[in-house]
Predict the 3D structure of the following.
Amino acid sequence: QVQLMESGGGSVQAGGSLRLSCAASGRKNCMGWFRQGPGKAREGVAFIYGGGSTYYADSVKGRFSISQDDYNISLQMNSLKPEDTAKYYCAAPRLRWVSESTCSARRLSDFGDWGQGTQVTVSS
């Protein structure tokens, strides 16, 4: 199993930026970020396939950017909105390998390794 640890959450005013990091004990060919706001279901936000191709929820396109290096999976969040307020989780798939289609679909059911989450709060 992949061990994951998120960091970088905090409170910011609308329009501000935060950078989240996920330290991973290993890598799978798809890595991603989910979020869960108060009273809402957990949703897939940003995913990276093969260390390069990226996929985003429509609500964050143009504002968020996922990247990966030897040490971390990062999520740069710009132009933050109150609707972005949520606990953010780093995740890896249940399977050792997944297809690009599976990665781009951003389905909760495909992911089984989770970090503890980091809270992001955006104030208007």
About this structure: The radius of gyration is 13 Å.
